[in-house]
Specification:
Strand content: 5-15%
Oligomer: single chain
Helix content: 55-70%
Distance between the termini: 43 Å
Strand order of the largest sheet: 2-1-8-7-6-5-4-3
Structural class: mainly alpha
Number of helices: 37
Number of strands: 8
Length: 881
């Protein structure tokens, strides 16, 4: 009888649960432990079809003493975090078992599997080799306003995962097994004694430090492993390996540079973020250089190397010089961090990564040319590939700002010099002015310009860009781009700040209207020879998933994003321009998240040419990159997905499919807008039925939850919008409108066409598949409890209608997929959701009661417990906003 491959996961979960129970008994007492056990038993029975047990559970938790609410909430939250750790480790375990099996085919999505499939599809070995060498994928890490895991707890969780991995070793002795269990017990105990929530709002610099953990604890080790895997697969399929300095995948960051709507991100913050990245990178390089120096004790070297270092041990002499310069670089970054003013670097400080790369490559050439290729292919090759990927800064930081802030800055400038207000000009007048000033030589900004603080902040940001060392900054992203002048405005502000190497300017189209207009905006830009020359023949364009989904609903937004990409590509083709699409995908499905490979495959044919940028939200960093093996897997899937979409694109949708999708999108938009923006009861229902207002007080991000001072859905950011619906398990923002769209399509006689589209069109398959995943996490019974205990009687029909729509959405999706139950074709996720539900349900029911009490009479103890439930529900559902 075959062994159950998932039994080790269940064993790990059971072990972690038992050890948590020990801690609970010791630290919270027997009474609380037994209360938690009773709640857990009731929740399990309620999930097994015993509806009366759910009523008992809800009633018990509605009367839970306040002093018990916090430890109960913490117990279930900690268990869900531990379950996440066990699942992540199990992914690593299964991957390694797969790779050990000599009879198993290559893992789906791996480089070996992907390259073989491409050759089988007709791609030649030469084409594949050139494509891999030409890849330019960049994963851009972002801070997350709803990232709930604290840095210290993440570190403890990583140590638990490491202990689980050690326990899998077959050669461990019994005492060594006991030692690992004791280590896990210790981490769980200290995690219990560590506050789950932040007492103060994190600063952007706190977020920068949290983002750097992923590089220190995972990506630094994972990157060379990923490149070796790619190199092996490329050699096996084409006969040629990756060039030594090849870097098909790199990283960027928005953390510390994203100032859109975040007044806490100032020029000083961005400067410090850049320096922290350099300081961290230098520390990591110093460790590698020390290890490499110990290894390269050889004395045979080329004349080239001897001429560079003189007498002595050539490799160690060169590495000693490199190490001294790297130490000087770290000390300079540290001194700069201690000062608010720029500190001039010494001559030895590395500011240009090419100098570091040249020295290491000199070592590499010398080893290869003297017959030591085997030695060169080890630690030195790994270091060279780290240098190619991470540079001196790990991840260049993008600057992001709202277009309205640039308009206000230029209005202040033109008013000061007597030209009138730029803000009052129409688009042709603005463009004529911008083109004229870009071509001219005179300075535009008066030296003594007096302006409002917001304007000074914009101008100082550009001055910061001008004096920041190379490699620290990436693109300049313009939020709410609506016209060509928005792009040219940033180019002019860079010119006026005398930026020596101007940052590439990236328009971000995010609302429904702006997506529809994206191609026309690019047409206007490309008509100007100055701008075409400035781009170097390649335009980067960012697409926003979050705001478009909040604007018109997820299904409609997905289709508008698809069509916008087609228009963007068409514009670039018309003007003989290459294009890099930058996808602003969020962690949750409601903001464009979902399985990576399918998301890439679902893009329009021709929209990917080997270059791709994608945001990875803070809430997903641990899930995608937290452990080295998982990070390697994530990078491989991005690589193979991008190659597939580029070299073997999906066929374009037929006219019949497009027309059907247009009708679906129109119907879904009308329903979504009618419910969310037209129904006068909706805003009050939203505020009372969800913890949206309380989320803003949770100290889980540095950025305000709203743009401006409005109170409606329009002013609320997309992330807390999705977060609020996730907490109540209604998941409204990700599926609303789908129910009417599918029902109306079936009524028109299009059922067979929908099934055909789902089977044969990756875009529609992805759209329905992601909605199916959300619906599997939704729970009408839990959502009804929020309504029953929090919503005024006159608003309760709104919730009843929405839950009815949820049921229709589920039935509609099942009819299209042909599944008997949600996620029937994805048993791994289905099982994960089913296992977690009995632990999430009690957190929801406790949260409902705590919301009721906090709203009636604010109490610090209740507010603390409420924050813990938010954390736990997010951990259990594996996504927040």
């Amino acid at each position: 009888m075959p062994t159950d491959p998932h039994r080790p996961l269940r064993d790990d979960v059971r072990l972690l649960g038992d050890l948590l129970g020990e801690t609970l008994r010791a630290r919270a007492g027997e009474r609380v432990f037994h209360a938690v056990e009773r709640v857990r038993a009731l929740a399990k029975r309620a999930r097994s079809g015993h509806d009366t047990e759910f009523v008992v559970l809800a009633d018990e938790l509605s009367s839970v003493p306040l002093d018990d609410a916090l430890p109960i909430a913490r117990a279930f939250t900690h268990f869900l975090h531990l379950a996440n750790i066990a699942e992540q480790h199990h992914r690593t375990r299964r991957r390694r078992a797969y790779q050990r099996d000599p009879l198993a085919p290559p893992q789906r999505g791996s480089c070996e599997d992907g390259f073989r499939r491409l050759l089988a599809a007709g791609v030649t070995a030469d084409q594949l080799y050139e494509a891999v060498c030409g890849l330019r994928i960049e994963l851009v890490l972002t801070a997350h306003p709803t990232e709930v895991a604290r840095r210290r707890l993440v570190q403890k969780h990583n140590r638990i995962a490491a202990a689980l991995a050690t326990r899998d070793r077959p050669d461990l002795t019994a005492p060594e097994q006991d030692e690992q269990i004791t280590a896990i017990r210790r981490e769980i105990a200290t995690a219990w004694e560590t506050s789950d929530i932040r007492q103060q709002q994190p600063t952007p610099i706190d977020e920068v430090r949290s983002g750097l953990i992923v590089f220190e604890q995972s990506l630094w080790d994972a990157l060379p492993r990923y490149v070796r895997s790619l190199d092996r697969a490329l050699s096996a399929t084409t006969g040629r390996g990756l060039p030594i300095l090849g870097a098909p995948l790199r990283f960027g960051s928005w953390i510390g540079g994203d100032r859109d709507g975040n007044p806490n991100v100032t020029p000083l913050v961005t400067r410090r973020a850049c320096l922290l990245s350099r300081w961290t990178a230098a520390g990591l390089y110093l460790q590698d250089l020390d290890a490499l120096s110990d290894e390269l004790t050889l004395e045979t070297a080329t004349h080239e190397l001897r001429a560079a270092v003189g007498n002595g041990r050539p490799y160690r002499e060169l590495l000693r010089t490199v190490g001294a310069r790297m130490l000087a670089t770290r000390r300079w970054a540290e001194a700069s961090l201690r000062s608010d003013d720029d500190v001039a670097p010494d001559a030895g400080v590395y500011l240009d990564v090419a100098e570091l790369s040249a020295s290491l490559h000199l070592c590499y050439r010398s080893l290869v040319d003297t017959g030591q290729a085997l030695v060169a292919s080890g630690r030195l090759t790994d270091l060279l590939r780290r240098v190619s990927t991470f540079g001196l800064t790990l991840a260049p930081i993008d600057i992001r700002q709202d277009s309205a802030r640039h308009t206000a800055a230029l209005a202040a400038i033109t008013s000061a010099v007597g030209l009138g207000s730029y803000a009052d000009w129409d688009e042709p007048t603005r463009i004529a002015f911008l083109v004229r000033e870009l071509a001219g030589r005179r300075p535009l900004i008066p030296a003594n310009l007096e302006a409002a603080p917001d304007v000074q902040d914009v101008l100082e940001t550009f001055r910061l860009i001008a004096r920041t060392p190379p490699g620290s900054l990436g693109a300049y992203v313009i939020t709410m781009t609506r016209s060509a002048s928005d792009v040219l405005a940033v180019e002019l502000l860079q010119k006026e700040a005398r930026v020596p190497v101007p940052r590439r300017v990236v328009p971000l189209f995010e609302t429904s209207r702006d997506l529809q207009n994206a191609g026309r905006v690019l047409d206007v830009l490309f008509e100007h020879p100055w701008y075409r020359a400035r781009t170097g023949g390649r335009q980067e364009v960012m697409l926003g998933y979050s705001d478009s989904a909040k604007d018109v609903g997820r299904l409609t937004a997905g289709w508008e994003l698809y069509k916008a990409q087609e228009e963007i590509v068409a514009s670039c083709i018309r003007h003989d321009m290459a294009v890099t699409l930058f996808h602003g995908r969020g962690g949750s499905v409601g903001r464009g998240g979902g399985p990576t490979h399918l998301a890439i495959q679902s893009q329009p044919p021709g929209s990917i040419d080997g270059t791709l940028r994608v945001t990875e939200q803070g809430e997903m960093l641990q899930a995608l990159f937290g452990l080295p093996d998982i990070a390697v897997r994530t990078m491989e899937v991005y690589t193979t997905g991008t190659l597939d979409a580029w070299l073997v694109p999906a066929r374009a949708p037929s006219r019949e499919w497009r027309d059907c999708m247009d009708r679906l999108a129109t119907d879904a938009r009308e329903t979504y807008r009618r419910v969310v923006y037209t129904d006068p009861r909706f805003i009050d229902y939203f505020r009372t039925s969800t913890p949206q207002a309380e989320i803003g007080e949770l100290n889980i991000g540095s950025r305000p939850a709203r743009r401006g001072g409005g109170t409606g859905v329009t002013d609320l950011r997309a992330i807390p919008w999705q977060f609020a619906w996730t907490q109540t398990r209604l998941m409204l923002g990700a599926w609303l409108g789908v129910e009417d769209a599918l029902d109306l399509a079936v009524a028109r006689g299009e059922r067979d066409r929908l099934i055909e589209m789902y089977r044969e069109w990756p875009h529609f398959q992805s759209a329905i598949g992601l909605i199916e995943m959300v619906l599997a996490k939704a729970d009408s019974r839990i959502a009804a409890e929020y309504d029953r205990r929090l919503v005024p009687e006159d608003l309760q029909p709104v919730g009843a209608e929405l839950r009815g729509r949820l049921g229709r959405a589920i039935r509609g999706v099942l009819a299209v997929t042909g599944h008997g139950e949600l996620l029937q074709s994805n048993p791994v996720i289905r099982r994960s959701i089913d296992v977690r539900n009995p632990y999430i349900d009690p957190l929801n029911l406790v949260q409902v009661e705590l919301l009721r009490r906090v709203r009636e009479a604010p109490d610090p103890r209740a507010q603390t417990a409420l924050r813990v439930t938010v954390n736990g529900i997010a951990a259990g559902l594996r996504n927040t906003g």
